[in-house]
Amino acid sequence: MRDLGSDKLCIPSPLEQIQHYIISKAGVELWIKRDDLIHPILSGNKWRKIKPLLEKAKNLNAHTIMGIGGAYSNLLHALAYAGYRMNLKTIGCIRGHYIDLDNPTLKDCKNWKMQLRTLDKKSFQHWQSIKHATFIQPGVFFIPLGGTDPNHLSGVEEMMHEIYRQISSPDYVCVPIGSGGTMAGMIRWANPSTKILGFSTFKQNFETEMIQNILGKDANTNWEIIKQYPKLGFGKVDAPLLEFIRQFHTDTGIQLDTVYNGKMMHVIMALIASGAFKKGSKIVAIHSGGTQGLRSSIKN
After folding, report:
1. pLDDT tens digits, residue range 225-280?
2. Is 161 found in the same domain as 31?
3. Which is deepest, 100, 203, 250, 283, by most CB within 10 Å?
4. What angle do CA 30, 78, 253 make, to 5 degrees?
5. Which of 119, 147, 175 is the last residue of a domain?
């Protein structure tokens, strides 16, 4: 699935080195894997995760794709567009009590013919598990929260192979944590010498168990979860974060989102400045896309 109709995908995505006086002073290398450039809409880890699921749906002759997410969901945004381009019906189940079509994410989904439904908190928690896919009507393929299916992470494997072809022996590969699927896939296919760092935005401390549940028992142990912005909570921003994102864009030309990548990069730069990485370290950060959410989240 290198293309969707006339749409072309930038695979492999570029790996760009970041030049900054803080990085130079620390004596390390910082690279960004630009998965945000895979496609203007189907960018980042969402495409990496939904590609094998869309292939499976196609092989099963599904006529409809169903997904769940929040009101600004990158997953539903990507699914709606992919379904539109592939002539598949799509259903988006939104956490909340009403559909706000002033929300640009949902407005796009509606324009791409996605049928939008609401789910209250209890129903959302019930449906976020992939096991409930068995209750879906025939011909409807269910994609779990965040697009994470532990048995279908080949898109993440592809990303890791790209990284190892683009840079030799990275010491660290960093990724923001949402549903945990991207990090789990990276751990699964990382070389033993590469440490995977996951950057969390959640107040709760459930990420380690979540990753271990996805990986199973016999997994690489060279990984760590770093709590970032726990006082803010998921999807929240403050003035220092917004200023960092603005300045990073000015310095590098790379736009970060406020939910995942902006927070991760802010913490990575702070860690580099503090000397947390030894001199000579090669650090790769995954830009997981999601900048479409800036149209709404920048207002939080």
Report:
1. 998 765 677 778 889 999 999 999 999 999 999 999 999 999 999 999 999 999 99
2. yes
3. 283
4. 30
5. 147
How many C-beta atoms lie closer than 10 Å to residue 71's C-beta?
A: 18
Distance, CA of 263 to CA of 244 (rounded, Å): 9
| Average pLDDT score over the chain | 89
Nearest to 88 by CA among 112, 59, 64: 64
State how far the Cα of 86 lies from the Cα of 32, in Å rounded to an integer. 30
Angstrom distance (rounded) from CA 223 to CA 139: 39
| Token pair belonging to 90 | 């799509």
For the segment 170-202, what is each residue's pLDDT rounded down to a tens digit?
999 999 998 899 999 999 999 999 999 999 988
* Domain count of the fold of the chain: 2
* Domain termination residue (choose one: 113, 147, 181): 147
Specify whether 162 is located in the same domain as 291: yes
Q: Which pLDDT score is estimated for 237?
A: 85
Range of the domain at 67: 44-147
Of 88, 90, 13, 83, which is closest to residue 48 (Cα–Cα)?
Answer: 13
- What is the per-residue pLDDT for 101? 86
Q: Are 70 and 145 in contact (CB under 8 A)?
A: no
Between 218 and 47, the more confident residue is 47
